[in-house]
Design a protein that fits this description.
The chain contains 7 helices and 4 strands. By secondary structure, it is an alpha/beta fold. Helix 3 packs parallel to helix 4. The longest helix is centred in the first third of the chain and has 14 residues. It starts with 8 loop residues before the first helix and ends in a 17-residue tail after the last strand.
């Protein structure tokens, strides 16, 4: 996959605003090369489910939409506000964009915390009904201490 050029602060500071906006759309919306590459992999591997992680910079919304269009169920593992960032045009989520994202992209979200899910929803992307909170930690209170080590 190709990473869109949105992580270079020098270039961003010297680009015209329209250039930065177009790069943002490519990074978060659709990056045609990556959609094509993903479609090839899906056809070759025919997975039961597609498991997404951080999609920022890859045209994440386009990858999710292509996966769904091709008939594959998908799950996104959410460790931060990726769904919200994917909906930013540029810098903020317009209500109609966030609502459409949640309505059209009908996969599932596994969120690492209620705080992260709440931040995404408050940010304008109502994925709550599609989300499950699964913490990334284990409460070890009461668990016996290790007695052997490698």
């Amino acid at each position: 996959l190709r990473l869109a050029d949105v992580y270079d602060p020098y270039a961003a500071a010297h680009n015209r605003p329209v250039v930065n906006a177009l790069k943002s759309v490519e990074a978060n919306g659709v990056q045609a090369f990556n959609v094509h590459a993903l479609a090839d992999v899906l056809r070759e591997s025919d997975p039961d489910v597609v498991y997404f992680w951080n999609l920022i910079g890859l045209g994440g919304a386009g990858l999710m939409a292509a996966t769904q269009f091709l008939g594959y169920p998908w799950v996104m593992h959410v460790m931060d506000c990726v769904p919200k960032v994917l909906c930013e045009l540029p810098g903020k989520v317009r209500p109609e964009v966030g609502a459409t994202f949640a309505k059209v992209l009908t996969g599932r979200y596994l969120c690492c915390s209620r705080t992260v899910l709440d931040e995404i929803v408050r940010g304008g992307v109502p994925i709550g009904p599609q989300a499950t909170v699964i913490p990334n930690w284990v409460d070890t209170a009461g668990a016996p201490c290790r007695t052997e080590y490698r």
